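Hi R.,

Here's the chain you asked about this morning:
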Amino acid sequence: MKPLYVFRHIQCEGPGYLAEVLDHLEIPYRLIAIDQGEPVPADTAGCSGLVFMGGPMSVNDPLPWIEQELALIRTAADRQLPILGHCLGGQLISKALGGEIMKNRVREIGWHAVSKADNATAADWLDGQPDTMELFHWHGETFSIPVGAGVILENAHCPHQAFALDNILALQCHVEMTAPMVQEWATLYADELKDPAPSVQSAAQMTAGLDGRIAAAQEVAERLYRRWLQSLLGT
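And the predicted structure, written out as tokens:
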């Protein structure tokens, strides 16, 4: 099997729990470190799918690699390759498929509940998932839903938490989190936590009961990842 291309845009926002799932399933992947100046591949000939991680930049920023990744997403979609995006990665997918990225009405940071959307796409992608689940968030922007895609997760802070289309999954929330990642982000991005609000948790709030929260979130993540990997797993 050709490897998945996993795009990292900042060192602290790597594949996290996704890497554990891929290793367990023996699915090869190649980390492409955009943060280290590694170039975006010119085409998708060498991969079996694309994964895009998060980052503090905006999809609307004039960074050369953003346009290159958008073009690669369009190529992969045309080839019907599986594509997965987390937060910034989900926004990249939306924009590549004709959606818009705009400021969310509130910043959403920390552990917040999301719910299944009431539609056939959500029923398919979230089969076996609880109706409501607590997941991790860290974003100030959000995406619109491209034509043909369906919302699968939503909440009051951000109605568009995830969408799916064929074998494409775009997430606004961060299902890839591990406990060390949460602790690291709470330290590195501490300046964003100075004014806690209903949608913004303090470092103490987001690290409280962390092991239990991570365990529950990773159960959700594993089911989502396995659903996304169906075409590669032959299931």
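Residues 210-228 form the longest helix (19 residues).

Let me know if you need anything else.
M.
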